Amino acid sequence: MEIFKGIPEIKYEGSQSKKPLAFKYYNPDKVVMGKPMREHLPFAMAWWHNICATGVDMFGPGVADKSFGAVEGAMEHAKAKVDAGFEFMQKLGIGYFCFHDVDIVPEADDIKETNRRLDEISDYILEKMKQTGIKCLWGTANMFSNPRFMNGAGSSNSADVFCFAAAQVKKALDITKKLGGKAFLFWGGREGYETLLNTDVKFEQENIARLMKMAVTYGRSIGFTGDFYIEPKPKEPMKHQYDYDAATSIGFLRQYGLDQDFKLNIEANHATLAGHTFQHDLRISAMNGMLGSIDANQGDYLLGWDTDEFPFNVYETTMCMYEVLKAGGLTGGFNFDAKTRRPSYTHEDMFLAYILGMDSLAQGLLYAAKIIEDGRVDKFLAERYASYNTGIGKKIIDGKATLEELAAYADELGKPELPGSGRQEYLESIVNSLMFG
Ligand code: XLS
Ligand code: NI
Ligand code: NI
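# nickel (II) ion complex -> structure
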């Protein structure tokens, strides 16, 4: 039964098209730098925002109808959501989805019953996956909504709560493995604190690492060969979240010996909440060999919270795709961890939002490829460090110089030349002319 009646399969029509339900830039077959767009951009649908969220906020109830013709909260509804999700992805040509355990079934009071429901729904999802060829990008356990997690999951002060976190991780890993998921994700949820008056940070961080270690050991024991991800976020819901940003998360993973099994899932809006650009956290992850996947969205520079908007800022998507191309692509994908604004409450809005997001990333890809193929930016960057290619610079790089020798070199020189202009404005004008020229 068709759920999104009147919504056709979304096709590429080109930038001149005025048709709302068409791609203007995302042309899956178009080859960019030797690869079709669909391979550059493995898009994923986020189950929670798209299929579950109704626009509930602190000030009012839901406004969007996500019942999909079923009684809400029952297993019948869970199945209707699967039907809706797969029809949605098929109509947009999206190849992957991401989910939390409690997105796909209503949580029961008893964990045994929740797990039974998860078995049932994952059979149904698997069937749909076989019919459509759509795959699972990553799964995760929601360890932040249920009241038991008010003080965190791995970081909870209660050992019983820690066990429930472990139980959920185990089951979510089982389901992710069953669905052939590429990765398993930990987003910090409530792993953080409000005040140091009641928090033992060292103890909590060690415990989070213990939970992650157990997850890796268990995952490998059941034959899960995918990556584990940490998704950094600096704040919200907690005042301070432990996985603050990419650099902090990488330090944590290395400290606890988790860096061989984990990579990062970088979310645009989380990077900007941490006071970085999206590009910054992508670069930090990539240069450490830990760029796994992306939660594609954008924040609002005037607001201090995670607005999870669909990406439309093409400067940001361009610099994102520049980093992704430079890193040789993603092993993960682009998961739209994004929601329509509350007044955009219709089913058609869900499609329009994904079209915006997919087109914005496609534009970013096209412009990033132009910047790379043009070569002026890369050439400038390489030349900027040319003083290390020969002479004393090379000696430094080769590790053959001593502090005394460099001091003697400086003595002899008396005064160095200024290091050369950074030419930022020139470089920015190159980017503009490539984007709009
Ligand atoms: C919340 C996070 C969350 C994760 C998955 O801010 O972005 O949605 O991606 O738990
Ligand atoms: Ni977010
Ligand atoms: Ni996210």
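# post-check
The chain has a mean pLDDT of 98.
The chain has two domains: 34-373, 377-436.
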